[in-house]
Amino acid sequence: MAEKGVKEPENVDEEMARILDFMKTEQDEVPHYMELLKNGSLTQRARSADALGEIGDERAVPALIEALRDESTAVQYVAAKSLGLLKDKRAVDPLIHALTSEDKWVRHGAAEALGRIGDMKAFDALISLLKDNHHDVRAHAVWALGELGDSRAVQPITLLLQDEKADVRREAETALAKLKKEIT
User: Fold this and answer.
1) pTM of the prediction?
2) What would the 3-class secondary structure string for the chain be?
3) Superfamily for the 11-102 domain
């Protein structure tokens, strides 16, 4: 039930846009979240990393980069995703390094973040993930390469049209369509 005077959202995208707009009003809380990210409990660190990405304040970038080295891979994953939301080029090298993590979720989050940031410096590292043992990492690497828009990715992505996992094949089809559209 909607509160009086509050318009019910038309769809999920509208609701997400409303939430993100609200989070941007929380910029005064950035220093507090950064402190929790550094010294809080596991739950506080993960929630703070998430909030910092949603708030969208670039002051959080150094703290989120530092969180890529947190003892918890859950915090590392959320920090990577948040860095992707911030789209700050300072995060590219640390995120490329995160692609070498032993944890598949950290690699997954870093690949997604690099796709959002869109820096070509990540191209070779993302290509190497196309052979990852985990299909969800392969799928996110394909998506990220599609976002980068470099035609050199067409041939390696084409090979994934035969991947055993449907999500990888689906992402390969989408990325190839996007890449071919950008080429023409």
Assistant:
1) 0.84
2) CCCCCCCCCCCHHHHHHHHHHHHHCCHHHHHHHHHHHHHCCHHHHHHHHHHHHHHCCHHHHHHHHHHCCCCCHHHHHHHHHHHHHHCCHHHHHHHHHHCCCCCHHHHHHHHHHHHHHCCHHHHHHHHHHHHCCCHHHHHHHHHHHHHHCCHHHHHHHHHHHHCCCHHHHHHHHHHHHHHHHHHC
3) Leucine-rich Repeat Variant (1.25.10.10)
